Input
Amino acid sequence: MAKTQGIEVSIVVPLYNEEESLPLLVEKTAAAMRPTGKAWELVCVNDGSRDGTAEVLEKLEAKYPELVGVYFRRNYGQTAAMQAGFDAARGSVIVTMDGDLQNDPKDIPALLARMEETGADIVSGWRKERKDAELTSNFPSRMANRLISKITGLKLHDSGCSLKAYKADLLNELHIYGELHRFIPAVAMQYGAKVDEVVVTHHARQFGESKYGLDKTIRVALDIIQLYFFQKFLHRPMHFFGYMGLVLMVPGGVMMTWLLLLKLFGQDIGGRPMLIAAMMLILLGVQLLGMGVLGEVLTRIYHEPQGRKQYVLRKRAG
Ligand code: UDP
Ligand code: MG
Output
């Protein structure tokens, strides 16, 4: 959608079963944004809630002219809901936030001010005093942050915080799939984004319940592996798979040659474990090389029909 009609800030909130929080959320957001004098909108995406979220949202839409409701037919998950919010958003800055009031809308103006001050493409909230369970949320999140910063060079204390501000033109370049909403800054790093952070308040969940449990940790771990691959090898999968393939095949080949020599000198090699090891190494190596070739083919299919480039420009003269 065209970024026109003078909206400066779009606040995007995904909602799944948040009927109790929603009225308060809209009220607090309005109270925080109206004094800024900016033209803003609040894009609430109902992600196929099973409770009365949709009805509450419809009623609020009549009451608040800044409120834009987007309604899914079924539950698609937080990432899809956020993407739908980005697609509907008209502002040149997009702010994301959770719908459960764990983030405080009061912090939005501070994010915006920081963005203007430093010219950052992304300003992330940092829940310095986080009010979630230590074992299932805080500890895995710290580990994840450390890994992400190793892999992408992203220096954020709390990249999992939903409260963030983005320049809309950057966000429009990104594509987020699966549950990658947690990693938008990390993905954006691949586009050379300038990222900054601001300490924000965090509240314990007042109404409803968290939609995620401990298995989130496993999915986050898998996503980090994915991120690593995309960061380093998206354009050259052969270097990833082929490298591993060679590392296995070369020792396998040496072992096999050795066994062949022994055989030629009349020794019986049928019962030797080395034979099995050598065969496994060679087979695995060939398979990995094959995957590398397939990966290269897929990379071309990924880029060419879409007219995608291997690079993203910030600007071009003229
Ligand atoms: N959410 C959503 N669709 C889902 C799950 C969650 O839109 O399938 C929303 C949810 O309503 C909330 C945000 O995503 O606004 C974050 O979810 P939650 O607070 O449950 O996550 P947590 O804070 O426990 O990580
Ligand atoms: Mg929450």
